Amino acid sequence: MKVAIMGAGLSGLSCAIVLERYGIEPAIFEDRGQVGDRFVTGEIDMEILHRPVMDTLRFFSKEHGIYLQPVANLAKLVVFSENQRCDFNGHIGFSCTRGRHPQSWDAQLARQVRAPIQFNSKRAYQDLLQEFTHVVLATGDSEYAVKLKNFRIDFRVTMKGATIRGRFDPQIVCAWLDNRIAPKGYAYLIPYSDEEACCAIAYPEPPVNPPANLPGNPPPTPQAYAPTGLTDKSPQPTDVFWSRFLTRYAHDIGQPHDIHRVWNISGYPVGRCHYPRIGNTYFVGNCFGAVMPFLGFGQYYAILTGVHAAYDLLGMGDYAEKAAQYLKCYEESLVIRRAMEHVSNRGFDRLLRFLDGSVGDWLFDTPRDVLGTAARVMRPFISLP
């Protein structure tokens, strides 16, 4: 068996680690010059989304021999709406660094792989099909899956973020649900250390086919995603949202913003594969659809798709069976995302008032499937393609 892995991110490297443990050395191809994305960002592994698994890092190490060190064990999530604040306390999950940083999860996984990574690779998928018995597509985006007619794009996302310097507690992360700064989306602050953090806004781009509206609300329109009062000569909407967020950040965090290493993403497709495997090709990570639509992070599922693709290659599991579970979680997350797009700022205020205190803390302590339960409650009120 000759296995090629296209992509040296979370899913591709996790696949390689498992294959090597059982004596198969894959060929790993990465089109960039080093492990990690184009820039450094912070992300969180929010364990409320992975029930009944309550400790994902313990799960990875004990069950699959994959070892990861977080930036911090998160003890508090602070969520702001336009007029409310809600503090969630408990075991929230873990924060991590991603991208071109020596302690990023990408770099940590690369140090656990014995096979050389062929950087700056120009090898095409079609060429690898002729040379290798199996190809694992772990390219970090859906480009190849789309070309192979194996990907459903549900929406596209615009993001803008930066490294911000100040005074932070790495065990506390913050989020903002405010349509004035991230329409139909959210903003967040995730510390790298006690001196640096990642801050970003993320929101869906205007849909080609807007989702059905909740009873009593007007249907969303492209204009609903843009700030009011803009003219052709005005700044781009993302810059307006970003400026508003920085003002809001300084007010809520209580310190001025000191911005470094700004980055932008536009038109990033969020969706899922129809089939996790076609012939001798496996789709893993973001190429499979590991990004969860609700909050946008997907490290947990990215790693697991790589792991279970490897077990399938080894004859030790059925990737399609495992992938069906991940797709179920994706669809549940999509239901919550669609419902969130209809919530006004007044609605976010009411939601945080309801969750503040014991109700919110219970959500993070219970082993119940909170994501699935929320999706079942919301599904009758929305329409999905």
TrEMBL record:
Listed InterPro entries: FAD/NAD-bd_sf, Geranylgeranyl_reductase
Q: Matching SUPFAM superfamilies, A to Z?
A: FAD/NAD(P)-binding domain
Q: Name one Pfam family in it.
A: NAD_binding_8
The superkingdom of the source organism is Bacteria
Q: Which PANTHER family match?
A: CONDITIONED MEDIUM FACTOR RECEPTOR 1, GERANYLGERANYL DIPHOSPHATE REDUCTASE
Give the protein name, as stated in the record. NAD(P)-binding protein
Q: Specify the taxonomic lineage.
A: Bacteria, Bacillati, Bacillota, Clostridia, Eubacteriales
